[in-house]
Amino acid sequence: MTMTNALGLAALLTLAAFPVFGADLATTTFRDHVDSEGNISLPADARDSWVHLGSWVVDDADAPGAGFHDVYTQPGAAQAYRDTGEFADGTVLIKEIRGIESAEMTTGPALWAGEPQVWFVMVKDTQERFDGPHWGNGWGWALFKADAPDVNVSESFENTCKGCHVPAQQTDWVFVEGYPTLE
Ligand code: HEC
């Protein structure tokens, strides 16, 4: 066996030892979605390859959260939550907000999601890796808009996110009642 083959085999065996979560999830998240200074980026492939946790609809154009809200996470993060009842290190939650389309369909008065407007992102950090303004209460918090998805436009966790998430404090700041995939 060549050295390369031996290393490849060792890597495969390591992966097999962590099939769905654990070291693997955190390694991937803090390599691909968070840089060494704690800057969070918007994962690009959530709708293609992550799991859908659930949806909310705020059908009032004047409400602060008007729109269709679809929430996604990595498959391994959902499995870890179902196994342990807790969000594992490296879990990423994405809430995509899209506009509301509506029409009379053969099913009835239907509402569906239009173009993406913003993405809210939370990144679970159980190791307290970062302490900047976008990190607090065990999570990193970020907000991206459709016209500039590379820029986190959240001012800070305290100023932009915390107040609204207080009602979910008992469930690790996540509104888990909306996510049947976690049950
Ligand atoms: C106007 C109140 C409000 C603000 C501001 C807010 N959130 Fe939320 N967030 C909610 C509510 C309520 C839900 C679940 C229900 C819904 O989406 O209507 C939610 C859901 C989420 C979700 C899906 C997972 C979960 O917690 O249920 C993420 C991710 C999220 N928010 C991140 C953020 C981040 C990051 C910020 C700051 C940049 C932020 N939120 C600011 C109220 C808010």
TrEMBL record:
Signal peptide feature range: 1-22
Domain of life: Bacteria
Domain Cytochrome P460 as annotated: residue spans: 49-175
Keywords per UniProt: Signal
Annotated Pfam families: Cytochrome_P460
UniProt protein name: Cytochrome C
